[in-house]
Amino acid sequence: MNEPNPVIIFETLNAFQRTGALKAAIELKVFTALGAGPLDANSLATACGTSVRGMRILCDYLTVIGFLEKAHAAYSLTPTAAVFLDQNSPHYMGSVAGFVAADEIMDTYRDVTGAVRHGGTLLPGGGSTHVDFSLWVEFAKTMAPMMKPAADFIANLVAEKHAGSRLRVLDVAAGHGMFGITIAEQMPDAEIVAQDYQRVLAVAEQNADIAGVQDRYTLLPGDAMSVDFGSDYDFILLTNFLHHFGVDTCNTLLKKVRFALKPQGAVILLDFIPNEDRVSPPTAATFALTMLMSTDQGDAYTFAEYKQMLTAAGFSNNQMVDVPNSPSRLVISSNA
Ligand SMILES: C[S@@+](CC[C@H](N)C(=O)[O-])C[C@H]1O[C@@H](n2cnc3c(N)ncnc32)[C@H](O)[C@@H]1O
């Protein structure tokens, strides 16, 4: 197991091929074409409008990395591809390639050396924390399916404890809005205030309409750091937001959040939270590199670090919970 082995070097240096191959298969709708049953490279090439050689090589590659199975010359979907990458599946999430593997994001990885030397993003104006960061609308349009398990989990937690209550919920940096919207769907008396930049809230508003909760859905556009949150919230959601900022900014924002809550209210924080060793579990731990490449000061904070920030903001009761089927963890903090 610990024998020196150069294979990992070769595999890691050409790991960009995996990104390219999966992105191409999503764009060409290969997984959707296979949704009805196995096909060989000839039939798939016809269905997807490609060359036969290109399709055979792409499908063999996708078989090697675990998205397809191959029997004789026919390819079929693995369970993961069938559930998440066939456009006819209700759990389809191929759209996430539009953000996760966007050219603007991938280009930043051409100079990891530079970002490591500098200690932060090489993107202009603080990268993803810049007010005009171009990809937030794309995030809102494409990433909702990936957040669904966590949104359901949070809504269930809230509904279990507060069934029948008239809850006021603030969704800070709401993006697609699905965290607040899912609570509104589960709790007919919940009122949601969605906060984000105006251009992003247009996507959340559309999603609220589709979910039929628009009557209980209010928009609060602006910069979360300066906009007036209002007060008397039962819950404030901070999902996938604090990781963009340094500790001082997180502290300031958490204090503002605490003042906007009812005395018995709670903040629900969802994020990539690695273990204290910072190298496990893999998805949460490696998210720190994403923050190095795209922000000046962001990080994948540990629970101990979040507890310190929350305590400094005046929260006294902090609990961490794993979210099933998600790499993220929840921290729920209240005053009481
Ligand atoms: C990673 S997304 C998270 C969206 C959603 N909360 C989720 O968990 O999927 C970050 C969101 O923060 C918003 N955002 C970034 N900086 C902000 C700021 N200063 N004030 C308000 N929203 C901001 C972006 O527009 C984007 O929608």
UniProtKB/TrEMBL annotation:
Residues 164-316 form the O-methyltransferase C-terminal domain. Residues 11-85 form the O-methyltransferase dimerisation domain. The keyword Hydrolase does not apply. The keyword Phosphoprotein does not apply. It comes from the Bacteria. Keywords: Methyltransferase, S-adenosyl-L-methionine, Transferase. This is 3-hydroxy-5-methyl-1-naphthoate 3-O-methyltransferase. It comes from Novipirellula caenicola. The gene is aziB2_1.
